[in-house]
Structure formats: C-alpha cells, structure tokens
C-alpha cells in the first residue's frame, strides 16, 4: 500500500526517519549510551581484516563502511563487487571476517560469494533486510536491518538502514579492538540518535528539490562529486539517477575530475556536488570551481556554512542541517534520492519498475 504517496519509492524515502530509528533502536542502548550487536559466537577482538562483498547500492554501503571501520577500529577492510570476488582468487587469512550486505538476501552473486567465504573457512556476517532469506540463514552473525519490505526497485530505505547497522558494527569493532574511549562512544551514540531528526529536516527540502528536477531532466549526462564518505554517496546518486530516469550519470571522487572527466564539462552538464562543511570541504570546493570555470551547472548540497562559503554561481543549493561527519552519509542520502525521484517523475518513467531491472537479481 502506497498510502498517500504516488510511488513506493517516494513512500520509502519518506519512511526513512522512522525505519532508521527502528533499526538504530536495536543497536543502541540509550541509557548506557553504548552500541550493541546481537550475541555472537566469536570474539570481534580477534578480527584482523574485514572483506566486504555486495552489489549495487549495498556495495556503496560497503565503501562507506571501509572509511568508518578503518578510521574507528584501524582494521583494514577490502571490498569487492560480489560478481568479481570469487574470480580474483582473493587471499583469505584466518582472522578475517567476511561481510555481505544485501537488502533481499537473495542476490545470486552475493550469495555465491558468501558460500565461497564459508567454504574457505571465514567467519561471516551479513547486514540483511529480509530475515527469512538465504543469506540471513547462512551467515554466522546476522545483523538485521529493520527497514521493512522495500518494494521500489531503486533501493532507498534499505540503504540508510544498512548504513545505520554498518556504523554500529564499526563502533563495536573499534571498542573490541580497544580503539574507542567510553566518551567517544557516548559521543557517537548521541550523533547516531540525531539521525532521524536530521533526515526529517532533509525531507523538508523536497519542494525545492522538485523545483530543480526540470533542469536536470533535460541533461544527457550528469556528474556527481564527493570526497571521503561522500564519494560513495556520489556513486549512489549517479546509480539512482540512471536506474530510474535513464539519464547517463557518473559519480567521481572530486579530486579525480581533473584526471579525465573534466573534459566532459560544458554548460549542458549538471554537476551535483555533495559536500558537507568540514575538513574535506575546501578541497572539494576547489574541484567544483574548476568545473564551474568551464561552465558546469552546479547543484551544491551542503549545510548553511558550506553554502555561505561556496554557494555562488550555482544553479541551486540544497541546505542540509549541520551534522557530524560520521552521520552525514545517512542525511545526504535523502536529497540525493529525492533528486533522482523527481527527475524520473518529471520525465514520466516507471519509477517503481524501471525498464530492464528486477528488485532481486537471482542470476549470476
Ligand atoms: O538485494 P540486494 O541488496 O543484494 O541488491 C543489490 C543490488 O541489486 C541493488 O542494490 C540494486 O543496485 C538497486 N536497484 C539499486 O537501487
């Protein structure tokens, strides 16, 4: 049931503050201000490496997870597309945790990768939305997302709930490895608890985003830029746009622009810049300005501080609340999803059932 929404995708975008809060509730102990995972039969302190495997949007959660786990727990993380993983003959070490991420828990490539990890003797974990799925049954440690059924082919609420669980895992690993003070953990828990409200504020910009959509809908190519954890967000933005609006889009790490893609820039190319203010902001802005000097039509997604500093000469700015860098990907997901949604609606495509795509890809 779509309720009073026009599409399942729109409904699922709007559900995010509630389902992310629901997911976080099962991983946070508010009184102790601690993060907690379900009981497990192995000791996280023994994990020396993490190998993440996923497809599509779930893969981008893995990329963001690599930033978080390495930064907080100082445990090296490698990440592969599930379809590539087995064929590169990866090196397994005994203290490696194999982690799959999947909404459906049935994606054929991810399931095959999981089985390969198990056969190779790895302990496995899974961030999975469908609790009765094959992957949920086969992993050693199930880390459920509580997004509820996701109907729209374009993944939205599953993505942000996966991020919430990934953050909880990174914090637990950091604590197990003795890398996190009690005070730092409290701090992180407070920031995570701010996510649902920050997401609601982001949703409050829906009408402005809808107003930008016609300008993007006429483009042949759209580029998304981000740096650090916002780089995978740029990839996610581009994937979302291509799958439902059929406009060619690419995500780039901001610093990579001048190594090739800047050749594409002229005044017909919208550039969506995902850049919360903070330590990485100035560098991203200088990459953005290089593109602006060549005519790029910039949409800047930032907070008030970032927009005050760099919002000039853009075709639009979308103001997000000021948030801690750790939770920024969860909040910035909202405008990225809404932009793809409104462009697709403006173009009149089948938003919930885009051509050539299935909700769950059960062939390798
Ligand atoms: O069910 P899964 O999370 O394993 O699915 C993985 C991808 O097929 C999925 O995220 C796909 O990329 C979405 N259509 C993206 O919106």
From TrEMBL:
Enzyme class name: transferase
Major location category of this protein: cytoplasm
Keywords: Aminotransferase, Cytoplasm, Glutamine amidotransferase, Repeat, Transferase
Molecular functions (GO terms): glutamine-fructose-6-phosphate transaminase (isomerizing) activity
Lyase listed as a keyword: no
Active site: residue positions: 359 (for fru-6p isomerization activity)
Protein role: Catalyzes the first step in hexosamine metabolism, converting fructose-6P into glucosamine-6P using glutamine as a nitrogen source.
Substrates-to-products reaction catalysed: D-fructose 6-phosphate + L-glutamine = D-glucosamine 6-phosphate + L-glutamate
All residue ranges annotated as the SIS domain in the record: 40-179, 212-354
This enzyme's EC code(s): 2.6.1.16
Superkingdom, taxonomy of origin: Bacteria
Oligomer status and interactors: Homodimer.
Name of the protein in question: Glutamine--fructose-6-phosphate aminotransferase [isomerizing]
Species assigned in the record: Sphingomonas qilianensis
Location within or outside the cell: Cytoplasm
